[in-house]
Specification:
Length: about 180
């Protein structure tokens, strides 16, 4: 390999790395709340607001990563995938009821999936343009914790698939 070819390869790698970092920096800030109407206020008007330091004290590291830093757990890693009992899936941070067991289905994606929230105002949406695609982010409407995303490829009756991070939720078994 001659010097010109080697220089070209190195220059291409450097330019690619710079463009990747520049693109990543721009797109990570592209989550915009979708305007909510008055009837979509949190259930019971309850809000839970804490500092990042306070959230770090009460959440496990993987929960903090997903709920507060908008991370994603590895597909197939959630124990909630295998739950098929009567009960409610609640926010791991604030215990807000999110999804009823009756709306859970196996989407084949590796994440707990539901076709609708337990009540409309249990969750809220935001436009997410991260990673060069537009998706609808789903957050807890009480504490603003990131839960996952919703897609329009779900089953009837809604046709929606709320693809949630299991680590962002806990299951409360029906007594």
């Amino acid at each position: 390999m001659n010097r010109t070819t080697l220089f070209f390869i190195i220059a291409t790698l450097i330019i690619s790395a710079v463009l990747f970092v520049a693109f990543r920096t721009k797109t990570t800030k592209a989550i915009i709340p979708i305007e909510q109407t008055a009837d979509e206020k949190p259930p019971g008007g309850r809000r839970v607001v804490k500092t990042n330091a306070d959230w770090k004290k009460i959440l496990k590291p993987d929960q903090y990563y997903v709920l507060r830093e908008k991370g994603t757990e590895r597909a197939g890693s959630s124990s909630l995938n295998d739950i098929h009992e009567e009960g409610t899936f609640v926010c791991a941070a604030c215990k807000n009821p999110l999804f009823d067991y009756k709306t859970k289905f196996d989407s084949g994606t590796g994440w707990p999936s539901f076709y609708q929230p337990i009540v409309k105002n249990a969750v809220k949406e935001a436009k997410d343009s991260e990673f060069g695609m537009t998706r609808t982010e789903i957050m807890c409407n009480v504490c603003d914790g990131h839960l996952g995303h919703v897609f329009d490829d779900g089953p009837k009756p809604t046709g929606l698939r709320y693809c949630m991070n299991g680590t962002a939720m806990q299951f409360v078994k029906k007594p």
